[in-house]
Amino acid sequence: MKARLERTTMALRVAKEFQDGDIVNLGIGIPTLASDFVPEGRTVLFHTENGAIGFGPLASDPAEYDINLINAGGQFITLMPGISFFDSALSFAIVRGGHLDVAVLGGLQVSERGDLANWLNPRRGVGNVGGGMDIAVGAKRLIVVMEHTTKEGEPKILRECTYELTAKECVDLIVTDLAVIDVTKDGLVLKEIAPGYTVEEVQAVTEPKLIVATDIREIEL
Amino acid sequence: MKARLERTTMALRVAKEFQDGDIVNLGIGIPTLASDFVPEGRTVLFHTENGAIGFGPLASDPAEYDINLINAGGQFITLMPGISFFDSALSFAIVRGGHLDVAVLGGLQVSERGDLANWLNPRRGVGNVGGGMDIAVGAKRLIVVMEHTTKEGEPKILRECTYELTAKECVDLIVTDLAVIDVTKDGLVLKEIAPGYTVEEVQAVTEPKLIVATDIREIEL
Amino acid sequence: MKDIRDGATMMVASFGGPGGAPSQLLVALRDQGAKNLTIISNSVGMYGFDPEPGVPKTATALSFPNVTMLVENGQVSKAIASFPVSPSSSRPTAFEKLYLEGKAELEVVPQGTLAERIRAGGAGIGGFFTRTGVGTRMAVGKEHRVIDGEEYIFEKPLRADFALIRALRADTYGNLIYNMTSRHFNPIMATAANVTIVEVDEIVEPGGLDSEAIVTPGVFVKRIVKRTREGDQ
Amino acid sequence: MKDIRDGATMMVASFGGPGGAPSQLLVALRDQGAKNLTIISNSVGMYGFDPEPGVPKTATALSFPNVTMLVENGQVSKAIASFPVSPSSSRPTAFEKLYLEGKAELEVVPQGTLAERIRAGGAGIGGFFTRTGVGTRMAVGKEHRVIDGEEYIFEKPLRADFALIRALRADTYGNLIYNMTSRHFNPIMATAANVTIVEVDEIVEPGGLDSEAIVTPGVFVKRIVKRTREGDQ
User: Residue C129 and residue D131: Cβ atoms within 8 Å?
Assistant: First the structure.
């Protein structure tokens, strides 16, 4: 009963945010899983940085794997009628020009003001920035999906990020294995909470003070 | 015997400059005529600002006129195997990025240092700048072809342009109905001269002092 | 087009004639009547003369609904263009007359700079440096910068409230393909407006276009209008 | 490739696996041996591990000739990239080890900024302002500018002596078409080098490609190399 959400459940919750007609970019990891859970009746087209919009689900049969049909994470994807291909310049013109309706990224840390750190673990010293900085800045709406705490149990939602930033004040919504949190001008608003958990328990593993939504509820799936 | 060159003859002389494999842009007017005179054995592909490289000759039969197949001057052109189409951004990336081997433009005035004025007649006050400024700056080699003097007999090759400039120090070669003149760091070098004319006669209708090439000859066609 | 308000900024594709020009959308805009429009376009209306007797030698001599119609209808107060006037001073365009009477504003922009500014607007670029225009009246008042020994000027992006464009064929996602040299400013204008409206000859189902040949992904297109009459320019 | 000298700057197309990567040209460059190369690429070599037992789940797990080969051969002294290292710290790339030993320089660039800088290099743009990287380490030492209320940083164009790219098919003019998501950095790198060399599966006569689907006009391509073995990645 009282268990943190599975990765697929987090992805399911994220996918509820997709509106009909949205163009959506999904980062590597949990975000990618969200593509399987687009709510019925909504048409969502997915964008991938290497240069496609409107691809189908991940290829399930190794026989259909094609090195020329992959997403930005290198996963084999499939064709869908209406798919279009373009180069990296146009791909990031889409991103940077504000044409992505929603982007979903993983996170190492998110600050109270919606700063995101997700590309460089200081223990390693070097990292792959990829397209995350462009996407964080360019997407109309940015959802970060991540575990609520580190493996050591430390909060990942902080007053200030201590890791190298991906972008400042870019996150609109945080979905974790414990909660759904809106980033607002007034601060972080706790909107939904994992089944069996209390506000206090979530607050205890969150560094900034959470504002509790008047209509707070269990995470809706 | 002693007659200024016809427009087609000027175009013929210009075309001699085209080397095998060149990508060439031709401005409206006399420059466009040069496409008919590419020297035998040389393959030259023409670029047009609206977005094509490698088109065929002007359409000669009104039955084949297609509003979707024109050059930058609005003339109906024809298909040729290997033609490619692109948008205005890529078209001017080609121009501005230094990928045009040769451009040929008309001119109102050219200065001693190779400044070009070709877009605005001050008597009118407004003019169409078109792609001339981009081409003048971007082409690896810029040839200006024009009458040597105005209708009133005034020099068009001047110490300083008095009309609004298209670009500074951009012209490499001037072909007129009287002469072929190289623009060099040392000044204007008179290389070829129309049949029957003397150096003095050309100098008389040219404002800056011409340097006479040691191998000066009749205009070669 | 009901949401095009007075004072809107409109990108309108055009180049050298009727090819790639959204002529039916322009007729609709004329009928809709929004005033005080700023037009961003390669040319600000064609010269408005009928085809010359016999066969026209150029596409520019063809008569078709273009921005001149909006100018004559009193809807245009400003233009940003590279071909703002007629090639011939003896046949001035409606806009040219308006401008010379001091009743309209005009910003003349080199064609490549116009294209790049529109692309920048669509690509979220805050501005860029170009060598085009250095040492000319286009450089007056602009920031100059020497980069690797060459002189450049700073140019700003252009965006619009609406882009009116034309394509050959759309699928229902708004993916577009064009027709030869009628591509010109259409793909970049599609990217640089809050609302892009495209006029097409044909609308097909997704899958009906070659995915490798799609020039404009549907993400850039808000509304698709099928041309009503065949053969009309 | 004989004219690739020590110290040359090389653009090398890559994205997520062997698709669109000029692997045979890289083998040739390894055999040619030029040293002190600067590599401009999305990734600086893949992780170099063989396919995992069974079926690889991603294209990135596939083994194919890539920049790691050049690094291991002592040819690389600098990289400009968005994916400079392995996704997993337990399997560092050859370049990562070199860099951490202080034997190579590295400039990490956000992927979209990398693409735009390459495009700018090919398009004759002297530099541009982007919001990407503002407030991060990417902005350190860069000019900041507020444009229409948003903060931007200045980024410079990238050019190279050579671009090594891969396409599906070329005609003899050098016009290119690509294969689905293997397009990525190839078309823009083609524009931004003094000499662009393309590796293709097939070379056809002019007219053998759909003119509306040509992505890279031949003007950008200097040399075309047909891949020698079928099925090889």
Answer: no
pTM above 0.90, yes or no: yes
- A93/C171 touch (CB, cutoff 8 Å), yes or no: no
* ipTM for the whole complex: 0.97
**For residues A169-196, average pLDDT:** 97
Q: Please, which chains are in contact with C (at least 3 CB pairs closer than 8 A)?
A: A, B, D
Q: Do A84 and C220 touch (CB under 8 A)?
A: no
Q: Which amino acid is at D155?
A: E
State the Cα–Cα distance between residues A27 and D108, nearest whole angstrom. 19
Kindly identify which residue of chain A lies nearest to residue C209, measuring between CA atoms: A82
* Contact A82/D at CB under 8 A: no
Q: In the numeric block, which tokens belong to residue D120?
A: 């700018």
Q: How many pairs of residues across A and C have Cβ atoms under 8 Å apart?
A: 65
pLDDT at D47: 61
Residue type, B211: I
Choosing from B6, B17, B40, B49, which is the catalytic residue?
B49
Residue tagged 């420059």 (tokens): B31
Residue extents of the structural domains in chain C = 9-108+159-226, 114-158
Which spans in A77-128 are helix H?
A: 88-96
CA B166 to chain centroid: 13
B198: Cβ contacts below 8 Å, ≥ 6 apart: none
Report the distance separating Cα A87 and Cα D123, nearest Å.
Answer: 15
Which domains, from first to last, does chain A contain?
7-218 (3.40.1080.10)
Answer whether C180 sits within 8 Å of B127, measured CB to CB.
no
**H helix count then E strand count, chain D:** 5, 11
With beta carbons under 8 A apart, name residues in chain A contacting D188: 87-89
The CATH number fitting domain D9-108+159-226, selected from 3.90.226.10, 3.40.1080.10, 3.30.70.2740, 3.30.70.120: 3.40.1080.10
The model's pLDDT over B66-112, given as tens digits with 9 standing for 90+, comes to 999 999 999 999 999 999 999 999 999 999 999 999 999 999 999 99
